[in-house]
Write a sequence for this structure.
């Protein structure tokens, strides 16, 4: 099996879990910004969720990069993903 085939299978398998993680990030971030009066422990949980999802997206990008047949082409075609990972 070629790396591109493996990458395509990985992307199909990880698509929905990454959507769920992205929604968790948006909810946690928005809640922290829009409701700053939460108790300290709630703010901490929201911060942990917000910061904790970044390594998930970083790992996803690195896995897809490693599995890409042509890595520079992958970087050029997925520049927005790379930028999002570099600027959490």
């Amino acid at each position: 099996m070629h790396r591109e085939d493996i990458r395509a299978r990985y992307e199909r398998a990880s698509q929905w879990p990454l959507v769920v993680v992205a929604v968790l990030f948006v909810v946690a971030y928005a809640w922290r910004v829009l409701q700053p009066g939460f108790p300290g422990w709630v703010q901490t949980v929201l911060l942990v969720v917000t910061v904790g999802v970044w390594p998930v997206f970083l790992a996803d990008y690195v896995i897809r990069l490693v599995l890409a047949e042509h890595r520079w082409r992958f970087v050029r075609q997925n520049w927005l993903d790379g930028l999002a990972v570099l600027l959490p």
Q: What stands out?
A: Residues 3-34 form the longest helix (32 residues).
